[in-house]
Amino acid sequence: MKNYLLTEIKPNSFFTKNTYLDQAFVLTAPEMPFTDELLSSLEKWRFKSVCSEGETSSEYAATSEAAAYVASDGAVGPGQQTDGDKLDKAEEFYNTFLFYVENMFVKAAVSNELEIKAVTEKIKDIVEYVKEDRRFLMRILKKVEPAEGKNYLATHSLRSAILSIIIGSYLKLPPYRLIELGVAALLHEVGMLKLPSQVYLSQRPLNAQEQKAIMTHPVLGYSMLKNFNAPLPVCLGALEHHERENGTGYPRRLMGDKISLYSKIIAVACSYEALSSKRPHKEAKDGYTGMLELLKNEGKQYDDTVVKALVLSLSIYPIGLYVLLSNDKKGQVVDVNPENPRFPIVQIFGEFTADGKIKMVQTAPNVLSIVRPLNRTEIDT
């Protein structure tokens, strides 16, 4: 593996083999140009070099090395036969928890009821689930889109809580802090419930008065949680999740170390969730694009350590991402390869082994690579 200084790489050039960040995660495949935008993002993030076994070229040259490797029995490791069951259980867990959050928000909005202890017990379940079956839960986040016409706050809050716990786990937070972080993330938007629903669910551009109202929700959430005797770190999660490292956030324009750790984590988690999820007024971006946008960290809005924790815990090609492979097959990233995390395991759409199992392929050096992410329209065609 050779190191290439960013200053040596010409914009829009190609590498004959995959390039990697920190010798771990794929940045580009041979079919993808090393764009000026990607170079700028890496420089802003203070990366000085990337790694590759290939050479640079001004043009893309197709290679015949990319041939699919499929495990002979359709399995990619111990326990593969139960993956379908685990995915079903993850979906059931997610839907059950989402139903709980929806009801919790209704009670908070209508009856002004919120039991912090009950929320804490529920978050313990998520922490445990993330610890045991994170990869299946991440696939469900991509599979289950917010239902049309429903309040997206519950979905956004639950997904942000899951992502926050994943980030916190990477940062080695102890269990009790992961639980507290999860509660803060699940309740970070609770102040929105004090606003007219036609404002925060609007599908049209907000006028100046409505924008001003939206910007009060962190303070409303803080006051609400304080009245329910939530721990101070949880209250601060609601108050500060829109603060930014460079002081451009709200409501207090805090900077850097003045912002609480939970708020820094929630800011990154909910920003990535918003980028990668469908909303009434916009389509979702794929996880790869969302990762690159956060990696750019324009204006240094987010804490570098937290952004890096998200990128390195989910990878540049996150579990659940739809992808096009170099053998022209379409599929979904379903797991990392524990022996070599640079080459994820991909489920091939519409293909099965002779004994009826879903076909999985192990991407591998000089054998099979990810060309690029796919959007839903491309999956359906």
Question: Quick summary of this structure?
Answer:
By secondary structure, the protein is an alpha+beta fold.
Describe the structure in your own words.
The protein has 381 residues and is an alpha+beta fold. Helix content is 44%, strand content 12%. The protein contains 13 helices and eleven strands. The protein has helices at 36-44, 83-110, 116-143, 152-170, 175-186, 197-200, 208-214, 217-227, 232-240, 261-276, 287-296, 304-314, 376-380, and strands at 2-5, 14-15, 19-21, 25-28, 49-52, 56-57, 322-325, 330-335, 345-352, 358-362, 370-373. The strands form three sheets. The chain has a five-stranded antiparallel sheet, with helices on both faces. It has a four-stranded antiparallel sheet with strand order 1-5-3-4, with no helix packed on it. The chain has a two-stranded antiparallel ribbon with strand order 2-6. Strand 3 (19-21) and strand 4 form a beta hairpin. Helix 2 crosses helix 3 (116-143) and helix 3 crosses helix 4 (152-170).
Brief descriptors of the model:
381 residues; alpha+beta; four-stranded antiparallel sheet; 13 helices; 11 strands; 44% helix
Topology:
Layout: E1 2-5, E2 14-15, E3 19-21, E4 25-28, H1 36-44, E5 49-52, E6 56-57, H2 83-110, H3 116-143, H4 152-170, H5 175-186, H6 197-200, H7 208-214, H8 217-227, H9 232-240, H10 261-276, H11 287-296, H12 304-314, E7 322-325, E8 330-335, E9 345-352, E10 358-362, E11 370-373, H13 376-380
Antiparallel strand pairs: 1-5, 2-6, 3-4, 3-5, 7-8, 7-11, 8-9, 9-10
